[in-house]
């Protein structure tokens, strides 16, 4: 982002509120500062960093103000999104002064709001939003890495979804494994704790594939992995992420930041 | 296309009968209408009668055309025009409305149709909202329709929200209005309506005027609160997607279509993800200027150092006058359309500009590249247009973008050689000069793969773009030399040697692919033309006479090409001599040896009648006697000299005919001794100056009298 200043967050909030209200309303123009039904706030998320060199994460929230007079002015958050960059400085070269680099953007809420907020940012800061697509290779990495994470509380099943192109509609195969079994398998595969190599990931996936083949005579290696769900988080190849465990948030975001940066470069 | 036909038809009939009256009715109504006056009744009726007249004519014309959808449209329009506003919900109305809407969305509406519908919509019809929403022009909007529409606003028959919708429509379609002189006269009307109690100084009108003031401050006469920040809903989005589609369908090359792509619209009604349309951002002033939010600095006002808004930049003289206070637009990608801002970029040495443009272009190229997408048909046209724009910008700036270069390196391995072919090959010619070994795996290998497996036309296109690439490198280098008028030793040497290496390797690469291509395409003359074109273009000290290889591949050169080939050689020789003295560049002795060997081979062919002999150079043209026997060409040794060479044999024949007109047999052996000299003079007279230069510079005649077999070679 060009000329993005953390000191001006209030100003940005006002401008973005007006912009969102203008887009959502019918017909009339909206002046900045008037009473609108929408309130947008930009704030910083201080804890969301990997290293000290990372830029501070920014949170954008759209709250709709309740129109009814007798209700308390409790704003209901209808959309939120955040920019962050976790441990990105290893991969990015040094960024010049006027530029702020927050390579990962996560959004939750209606896509129309995402479009509005995104277009405002693009117009104002000359940045560019593109959808993060996760390849099956990277999804396999996530499956392996997240399975290996230790989770204390109840562990949900590990599920992998594969897509097979068929006529008329593509076929989805869902493969669910008990997370203890998956973890046990991963523990036998992984040689060095804390390190994951491509061979280990491949071996892990091959074991799962061969198990499936033994039972169903289907070669999953010929299909396309589209979604991975573990107790830590779930990821879809379209870029939809669900983070289920707060302890591993930074880890997941680090991985996503890495993917985002590699897609940019 | 149908709309243009309609307009043509209309004009014919207007000229035929009663045109002047109709027009005069309109004109008189306009002149009688003064600013602020409310007109009603008879004037509008006059307008309507004139339109009915024209509508009738139009209907008869369309009957002649026999187009059924056009008929439906005509019926619909006629219905609307004559229909009463009381039966609003009957089926006929709905049916006609649906017809109009569907045709509008498919093809757009003609100016006359728009005229009728505008009048209908603003005269109190209850379905006016739907009508206004489907008023999409196929080509232009007649100014008169807009004027009459505005006159309807004075009548006050339509509701406030309809008036507002009309204003939104007007804003969205402003660029389509063919003439605007009368519209300019109407601004007073808009200003007056601000004082109207009903509309009042609404924020949207204020915002509209302040926006207009940004573009044309001299036209907006009222005062507005300064620095007011207002946002409009992206009102064009209702129509924008439809407009774009119709543009493409009608293949409109009118300038208005070009302007349209400068949109900021992100269609929100789409269910799919946003950002799907490749739209170049419009030049808008950077709102994110931190000084704006602070208090006004008095010193700034006094020194008039306010920045010049980029929307007002229309002429070069404006650029020069305001160059010290011009700011870049908020989205750097918008400079691609604006040649004035490109001039500005050339002057400013700000890293952030390049960085912004680099990021944006890199991302856009990557995202919109159609051979990654699954269903790419609809996006291919947009992407092609975008690549064209990038290419034009590179030509304008006379240098290549590094983001473009990276895009090419990333995507050429995946390219099928077909999608956006001419655009991609043109962009290849602007790859900046760099070390060839870096370029080789990214550019040469994928290009070679495609080259060998593709059509003749593709091969020629690739050769042409490589020729342009070489030319651009040389031009760029010459510019660098000019800029650094006082060259320091080490940079000059490195850049020069880097250039020469890269150039040499490029030429070598081209020579390789050209030779193989000639084999594959069976010496097609079309291909040969492009190859010779390549070699003719460069004028740097050439190390390559891979032409010789080509000669070896051919048993007989076609006339035209070998002639050019000779001029190539001579030109290269001449330039080499010149450059040597100027640049004092050290050629390696190996280069000289190669060069000498080539010269000797050439002289052996041309002069001493010892072709294909005694050539120990690996790239030389020595052929074993057995091979020569197989060619079954008699007298191989002198088959390429200046008499027997196929390219020059015509001249030899003419010479013989002139010298011995009575001799019907063409005995080429007669041309020896002093007749050889005559023949040589004859050739010079015929204009073969290149040959003259070559022979005079490369061949030292021992004596004028005895010359045929002996010739020393001198460099």
From TrEMBL, chain A:
Q: Which Pfam families match?
A: CENP-L
Superkingdom of this protein's organism = Eukaryota
Location of this chain's protein in the cell: Chromosome, Centromere; Nucleus
The alphabetical list of record keywords is: Centromere, Chromosome, Nucleus
Q: Name one GO cellular component term.
A: nucleus
Q: Does the keyword Nucleotide-binding apply?
A: no
The similarity annotation says: Belongs to the CENP-L/IML3 family.
Name the PANTHER family for this protein. Answer: CENTROMERE PROTEIN L
Name of the protein = Centromere protein L
Species name: Terrapene triunguis
UniProtKB/TrEMBL annotation, chain B:
Provide the residue span(s) of the region labelled Disordered. 1-69, 250-269
Q: Where is the composition biased (Basic and acidic residues)?
A: 45-57
Q: Which UniProt keywords apply?
A: Centromere, Chromosome, Nucleus
| GO CC terms, sorted | inner kinetochore; nuclear body
InterPro entries from the UniProt entry: CENP-I
Q: Which GO terms describe its biological process?
A: CENP-A containing chromatin assembly; mitotic sister chromatid segregation
| Subcellular localization(s) per the UniProt record | Chromosome, Centromere; Nucleus
Where is this chain compositionally biased, Polar residues type? 58-69, 251-261
Q: Which family does it belong to?
A: Belongs to the CENP-I/CTF3 family.
Q: What is this protein called?
A: Centromere protein I
Q: Which organism is it from?
A: Terrapene triunguis (Three-toed box turtle)
Q: Which gene is annotated as encoding this protein in its UniProt record?
A: CENPI
